[in-house]
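Collaboration report, partner site 2.

Our partner group contributed sequences for two proteins of shared interest, and the home lab folded both. The records are reproduced in the order in which they were received, starting with the first partner submission.
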Amino acid sequence: MIALGVDIGTTNLKVHRVPDGSMRSVRTPDDADALQHDVRRLVAELSEGQRIDAVGITAMAETGVPLDRDLKPLTELITWRDQPGVAQARRLASEVGPEAFYARTGLRTSPKLPVVTWRWLLETRPELLARTRLWAGAPDLALAALTGRFAMHLTHAQRLGVLDLRRRVWDEELLRFGGLDRLPEVVEPMTVAGTTPDGVPVVLCGHDHLVGAWAAGVREPGQVADSLGTAEAIITPSPGLVLDDELRRQGISMGWYVDGQDACAVSGNGAAGGLIEQRLAALGRSYSWLQDVLRPVGEPSEIFIAPYPQGRQAPEPDPTSTYDVSRPADDPAEELRALADALSFHARWMAEEQTRLLGIDWRSTVAFGGPVRLGGWMERKAHASGGRAFAVLDGAATAAQGAASMAASVVSGVVDKPLRARVVEVGPHLGEIWDGAFWHRFHKLVT
């Protein structure tokens, strides 16, 4: 069975073909028309001379565009990074209440939420919002490009900030706050959402971090996914929704998993691969230099870094910036080692808080995404994991590959097998050193 996976990321749009592994990639366009054009083009290129049996779509969340009566974009894509509605996010927290909002949506009030963006449009460009026939997210645009139908996956619907998680219906009060209720239909997970003109079934697979986690085999409590890119997401499956306010206070969001049956918790770190890239650029160094710097792995660096250039999202959210990415370095190599160590310890902290608050025994982690090519960083993550099993999925297209496999599974009825991960071994003596004074020092100093 041949399937294609479409992944619309913050930086790149990828289309991956399974089982042969062929892939096409371009920079993700800022314009919705251009995005749809590129989706059709890349799918066509990978379909040429092939009998495609299924197409799966995954994408970043909290990114979309208002469409007019002719379903043409009224603006460029408004992404999760744009966040124009800072004042409106404060108003949402004031009017609804952070606790009540989390109890209904599993989300913290934030400028990146589309409901906040809609309120910003309502207050600053009401004529544009009045002309809006439909709000379409990035994956919804891809589905329409291939099938002519607009629809939305549950895991993208829940990131809008207007979905009642328990009932899986739109929350009328939150829709009124945003001033927009023209949204695509929400389709059930693991179902066919539409067909191409050639009759190929197309499946909406869900939020890209979660699709990557599913593909990595993180499918039950006790397993943790570390999704790495410009940002980082730690994902923990849960047997049910846990909407306790302590999770909100720790910066942890809660929602349904890609299968729509289990739930999952997600913690985000906006400074991960992007932070490494920024620091390398500031120091005029390359990734090949960094590869050499991060190997071999010994004891953690004696230098302490709190790796939060724009504050910390989770745990214990703190808006205070504590790391200057542009300053000079006394010893660039030692600083980058210390930075990789700090990011590794922070990922452990996120996973420990998630599993602790969910009452889950954290047993293993699988890391995936572009930055896994930095083998020395992945070894540091393994050493920082407190003796838990740690594996890496090599390759930079896990979400796209996962979307293709999931679509094939939905169409064929055969459960897809997780991708094969590479186990990173940690010597017991060195593991104890990382798990001892160095871990406790990091945790004490950042808190």
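Second partner submission, folded after the first:
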Amino acid sequence: MIDFDAPEPLYVQIADDLQRRIAADEIGRRLPGVRTIAETYGVAHATAAHAVQELSQRGIVKTTPGRGTFVQRPAPEQAQPDGD
């Protein structure tokens, strides 16, 4: 999961793992809450919040106040004409 002794910051490791889990469809449309993320990874609330902020900066999730943090699914590519 994460390596507490690695030189890479914990919040980046958590964001990377969450991004991997999102890509593998292990996480649905709504990201778990910061408290749940902190408990899952055994880190402080602030570290978990920083990981969510990192995902937001990457364009992976979007937080809507009062509703939660949601995975941003890429829009389906529009069909290209065949040229026929």
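Feedback sent to the partner group on the second submission included the following. The mean pLDDT is 90. Helices lie at 10-23, 34-41, 45-57.
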